[in-house]
């Protein structure tokens, strides 16, 4: 599925396909412009992108996976070192990814900012690694509603929170958009009569939970396709969001190594955000 092929303008290697797809994911450039830069036909560029994304989704469960109980013990210690908030094994939040949806369905994706978006729900570690994502809810959905519809929320609801969080003392951290649960700690609501202890709790929670906001910023900063996904169909938008999350984890799990800089094939100008060891990624998508 993902190998060297013959295009209208000659042979297109796996490496070139990967560079085309990474350029697409890391920028807002059109497929036509990317094709011109890599001297391939528009159809070849689009095919390279779609095949690459399919390959990335095939390795999703290898790079985004829920931690074991033993791993949660380590994760809890790492979270505690941030602001001394105990028992945390994940920070959860929702992120709106704006996109272009077909006119017939666009109204379903309207959000409170009067734009159209799809929601990415993420859970991450203190090291900013995704351990769970859920993609596909329309922008009109509140974060709490997205959680209830997600596989994570359903499993906890049907099997109890220890089915995923293992121990009674383990929990997730969420913001005020979520309801307080034994397995999800949220801030006190500011009613104007908060005690000093409650204020301190909120500050500590915020300092710990902020990692998930940092993760969303990192994903959108490196994989700039998520700034605005102009592909219309919900399935294609969800594919690009999911792929960006896999790529994020790939980079961090491989220590963000910069062994080669991807450049414009017609010059030496570095393409923005394109710092990734593509040889390692090629190995993963071809051999996993």
Structure in words:
With 288 residues, the protein is of the alpha/beta class. It has 2 domains: 5-58 and 255-287, no CATH class; 62-222, no CATH class. It is globular. The chain has helices at residues 14-26, 31-37, 42-58, 60-63, 69-83, 143-149, 151-159, 162-165, 196-222, 234-253, 278-287; strands at residues 5-7, 10-12, 88-101, 117-124, 130-138, 171-173, 184-185, 229-232, 261-263, 270-275. It comes from Cacopsylla melanoneura.
Secondary structure: elements and pairs:
Layout: E1 5-7, E2 10-12, H1 14-26, H2 31-37, H3 42-58, H4 60-63, H5 69-83, E3 88-101, E4 117-124, E5 130-138, H6 143-149, H7 151-159, H8 162-165, E6 171-173, E7 184-185, H9 196-222, E8 229-232, H10 234-253, E9 261-263, E10 270-275, H11 278-287
Parallel strand pairs: 3-6, 3-8, 6-7
Antiparallel strand pairs: 1-2, 3-4, 4-5, 9-10
